[in-house]
Amino acid sequence: MIYDLIIIGLGPAGISAAIYAKRAGIKILGLESEAPGGLLNKINAVDNYPGYKHVMGPDLAFQMYEQINDLGVEYKIKKVTNIEVNGDIKKVYCNEEVFEAKNIIIATGRKAKKLGLKNENKFVGKGVSYCATCDGALYKGKDVAVVGGGNSAIEEALYLANIVNKVYLIHRRDEFRAEQELVDNLKDMNNIEILYNRTVTELVGEENLEKIVLDDGKELEVSCLFTYVGYEPYSDFLSDLSITDEKGYIKVDENYQTSIKGIYAVGDAILKKVYQIVTATSEGAIAALEVAKRVKKG
Q1: Of these residues, 134, 215, 216, 245, which one is catalytic?
Q2: Residue 94 annotated as catalytic
Q3: All domains of the chain, ordered by start, with CATH?
Q4: Which is catalytic among the residues 4, 59, 70, 135?
Q5: Is 131 labeled as catalytic in the residue annotation?
Q6: Which of 3, 142, 144, 185 counts the highest number of beta carbons within 10 A?
Q7: What is the pLDDT of residues 108-164, one digit of tens each?
């Protein structure tokens, strides 16, 4: 079967694209490597999405998933490994299966960057985490550390402070780049200790993380280190297409089409100025409508 459109990634951007494409009456397939909702499933709370004064990230993800499910959107849990372009037909490889479509919307989003420290991979799941919402409950009553200075780092530090005994918030600069309201909220938490102008240089432990070492030699005995030092796009599978910049972000035009006709990209995987849920859903809608127009023109 050749689909009119394959959407790779079902986070907010991909789900929005699926909604608009399905309502336009074209034949679509969604592919998601993990759970529908994408990074929303790893966000504690969302306070800036229109229509919701406050909603938990996983709850918003589930509501988006329910919407495409109710519409009857076909989707599969598959990890895409490669895309091959043969004229107007694009082949999407997912290990043991290959799907074909006339158009593709890439909405794979971003993943958290690693610190690049020795033993970091060893301790993943054993004291190193990139998702406080996912793993915070495992460290109830214990001491943990959070690295970062943006919205995500502070949001997760505040979330953890209600679960753990103490949070060390480590930031490499002398001021945060997060929203002022979040910074102000830190002052209300007695169990968050802020360490400015510091970086983590070493992870110490046997089977599990036992302590971290800072660049000034200070040692902190913590059960887990949560890192929020930026993101990088999920775009490794696009290396053969030459549609990304040097950092892996996908380059698109005003209609979110790449340099390859019929291949679009939206959401956090593209090169843009604002990375927010609301912009991602807008981009998904625009790209889907562009594809629908193209399909109906034949």
Answers
A1: 134
A2: no
A3: 2-111+231-297 (3.50.50.60), 114-227 (3.50.50.60)
A4: 135
A5: yes
A6: 144
A7: 999 889 999 999 999 998 999 998 988 899 999 999 999 999 998 999 999 999 999
